[in-house]
Amino acid sequence: MLRAFGLGATLFGFWLALSGHYTPMLLGFGVGSCGLVVYLSHRMNVIDEEGVPLQSALRMMMYLPWLLKEVLVANIDVAKVILSPTLKISPRMVLFHGSQKTDLGRVIYANSITLTPGTITTGVNGNEFEIHALRAADLETDEEQAMDMRCSRVEGG
Amino acid sequence: MDMALDALSWVSIVTGLFFMLVGTLGVLRLPDIYTRLHAAGMTDTMGAGFLILGMLLQTVQGILHGESTWWFVLFRLVLIYVFLLFTSPIASHALARAGLAGGVDPWTAPGDGDE
Fold first, then answer.
1. Which of A28, A61, A91, B33 is the most buried (most CB within 10 A)?
2. pLDDT digits over B49-61, tens only?
3. Is residue A20 within 8 angstroms of chain B, CB to CB?
4. What does the DSSP assignment read for A49-116?
């Protein structure tokens, strides 16, 4: 119930921010369509801790700045690799182990890995993440462990 | 203030363009689909990121000039980037998986093969 309400409130806030028209009729349409979406989501049984992860929303927002910093650092590294005349790459498939307990946490971790240039998640099997690394030689395990830890913290519990 | 914001906005947009260029160069220079995906990912995260940051600074300038409707623009720009953050890794992942499913072996550096 709380989740359904949270979903409705989020959708309507989103609608308000994007619409820019605040006549009673249009507001009514907004309320109506948000209500319909909540009803359909309820019927589809997707209003749960995975479909509407309210429990992680705040921690997610605190995680994003750190992730963006990592993305920036990794981007500069990959840019250096591409711009160097010798193209020093040693691509390889590697396996990472994640410590997440839920599918949502695994998705967050897998997407974070892909978002940082130089590593792409090509497969997830339980808690084993199959990664294609651009430069397997200087893959920093410390960094990956920090990301794994932070993703586990985002999922909470 | 206007000058400073404009300058920052320009620096940001030029940085974004630089990362776009490097990403494109990477797609041309790197040897196979998997390594090229790394380069393509750069244009999404940093290229688009800095371009949007530059546009954000322009909207901030508008807001400072009393254009209150520009808050909407600001919010939408942030949303565009958030959606990119959610969707672009999924696209990369799907492409890499499609490559693997299609039996494309990842390129390895000479003398650096699978041990």
1. A91
2. 999 999 999 999 9
3. yes
4. TTTS-HHHHHHHHHHHHHHHHHHHHHHHHHHHHHHSTT---B-EEEEEE----SHHHHHHHHHHHHHS
